[in-house]
Amino acid sequence: MAVTLTERAATHVQRYLRDHANGLRVGVKPTGCSGYMYVVQPVQAVGEHDRVFESRGIQVVVDDESLKYLDGTEVDFAREGLNEGFKFLNPNVKATCGCGESFSL
Length: 105
Known about the structure:
The structure is a single chain. The protein has 105 residues and is α/β, with parallel strands linked by helices. It is 20% helix and 48% strand. The chain has one domain: Hypothetical Protein Aq_1857, Chain: A (Sandwich). The strands form 3 sheets. Strands 3-2-5-4 form a 4-stranded mixed β-sheet. It is globular, with a radius of gyration of 13 Å.
């Protein structure tokens, strides 16, 4: 079981975390038209229900509940025109909504 970062994502996260946190929390929450939405935020502390993965020198923290949906996911970072953000290569996803903000399993 693991959640990993691409080199591009790790480079972006390292710059951001330098001043903000000790790691990157990746999770899911129920929402959207397809069922779940990704959540990415800096993390200061690890809880008892968190799993910690080391990926390219970054601590990736995932809570036990989210890990069921994220196992095997690779997080990338992309710039497309004026937009930039994380992309999730999640082998567990069965469908995404039209806007790309949510997914179902």
